[in-house]
């Protein structure tokens, strides 16, 4: 079970990777847009510098045709590093690009997945990760738990090396469900992780513990006891 940050904000990445057991960072054109017109490759390299080579960095192509996707992938690998997981939408053009990239031993994350067949085809094409869009599927009336469970079942039955990278979450409950359905990894906005640990009842419990301790020992902490 691995957590990734779905953001390109450098301050957020620095802050939350210091706190949480983060396994990597994901981005896409919509996430990049939030940062404004950045120096794209300098920014991606800075993310890599922050998280290190032991974590995964997922960067999405922007071309919509196979040849363009392959050129985007080559540029990403050359200008960032060859360990980047290149994100490719699972379309007709995208699945062809995934096949080609895997023949070149490129790390590939198949993204924009809304259906079982998209995921199955991406697995068969050799994708290292498949990213089903949890909240978006749910909004469309598609059962995301069933889709993810089907992916997990196929991985178990046929021995695919592909990992399920749950994406498109609006709250921690959806992340929980993705993991319970069989996703090995999940990427989310850092605010979802933060909210899970800052709920009012949690903070009240901590304050109550603090008050009870101080009622006996005052402001002396355990490390200060003689």
From TrEMBL:
PROSITE patterns with a match to the protein in the record: TRANSALDOLASE_1 (PS01054), TRANSALDOLASE_2 (PS00958)
EC number, as in UniProt: 4.1.2.-
Keyword Transferase: no
Domain of life where this protein originates: Bacteria
Keywords: Lyase, Schiff base
InterPro entries hit by this protein: Aldolase_TIM (IPR013785), TAL/FSA (IPR001585), Transaldolase_AS (IPR018225), TSA/FSA_arc/bac (IPR033919)
Subcellular localization, as worded in the UniProt entry: Cytoplasm
First-tier enzyme category under EC: lyase
Record NCBIfam families: PRK12656.1
PANTHER family xrefs: TRANSALDOLASE, TRANSALDOLASE C
Protein name stated in the entry: Fructose-6-phosphate aldolase
Organism: Dorea amylophila
